[in-house]
Amino acid sequence: MLLAAALWGQHAAADDKLRQSDAAWKAMDRCARAAIKAYPDYTAEALAKREAQRRQCLSRSTLPGGDDVPAPTATGSGEVSK
């Protein structure tokens, strides 16, 4: 009986962690979708603005990937190599 109670407690803690993780992923997805909706073009300028908006949304929501991650740097001329 004591073992069952201990296992149930661990299972409940794991469920809470899963719910928290799921909620964070959904919120990050909402930030990405809002940024894509605001800047749907695939120009370098629109992509930079989209990333800035996504990061700002993540920061406001205290989610990972906002200000705590360095911004990607653009390299090259933007042409795709063959």
Descriptive overview:
The protein has 82 residues and is mainly alpha-helical. It has a domain at 19-63. Helix content is 66%, strand content 0%. It is built from 2 helices and no strands. The chain has helices at 2-38, 44-60. Helix 1 (2-38) packs antiparallel against helix 2. The protein is elongated. The chain starts with a helix and ends in a 22-residue tail after the last helix. The model has no long low-confidence stretch (mean pLDDT 82).
Number of helical elements: 2
Q: How many strand elements? A: 0
Determine the structural class based on helices, strands and strand pairing: mainly alpha
Which outline best applies?
A: elongated
| Helix fraction by DSSP (H/I, runs of at least 4) | 55-70%
N-end to C-end Cα span: 65 Å
- Beta content: under 5%
